[in-house]
Amino acid sequence: MLRLRRAVLCSVFTAVMAVGSLFVSDLPTTHAATNAQPKAIYKVDTDKKVVALTFDISWGNKVPEPVLDVLKKEKVTKATFFLSGPWTLHHPEIAKQIKNMGYEIGNHGNLHKDFSRYPDNWIREQVSISEKSIQQVTGVKTKLIRTPNGDFNPRVIRCLNSMGYTVIQWNTDSLDWMNPGTQNIVNRVTKRAVPGDIILMHASDSSKQIVEALPQIIDQLRKDGYQFVTVSELLANAKVSSSIVR
Fold this sequence. Notes:
Elements (H helix, E strand, L loop, with lengths): L1 H25 L12 E7 L4 E8 L6 H10 L6 E4 L1 H6 L1 H9 L3 E4 L12 H19 L5 E2 L8 H9 L3 E2 L4 E2 L8 H11 L4 E6 L7 H14 L3 E2 L2 H7 L1 E6 L2
Parallel strand pairs: 2-3, 2-8, 2-9, 3-4, 5-6, 7-8
Antiparallel strand pairs: 1-10
Helix pairs in contact: 2-8, 5-6, 7-8
């Protein structure tokens, strides 16, 4: 009987510890505690009302220039664009315009495929191709990368870090590529944004409503007291809030 009770207690303890560990693994982890772990940056911890507007571009030439026109008209001088290699080569004048307007440029890969499905040598090859394409057109040697589809795992992060890249995700997703309606895009961004936020939008032709939504987003965020900075400026001036990749 004593042996049975011990076995039961041991089983209960093991179950409790397992459940506890599940909860702990899902808790937010501080940057200091995870410095050695692979991570992607979602936002930064800051009391300042600053956010980074980021735009992914992987195809099309109908939306990018109108987006740039909106930013110019609204006098937004700080934003970060993640460009794919093929798009940059196919639309060099627009890529150069982004650079000449002073916006930060990051890497969005070459083929728009999930990195986690491929080995490290494939990832290095793809990132190197897009890096060279962007540098050839704009003169920019990229240091930030947003993986296609935002897909990664610990191995992918380690591979990209070994290439000198910082992996950038987002905390607020506009879902503009789904074209849910202009007001829905505006509401998602303006109601979810927090200080230190990285906001995901697209300037690809798939995002058919971003040009109408963007002026409203900019106006409302400014009314809420926010200023716009690049991703690099966020990283340089605030404590990083990252997600450990499991």
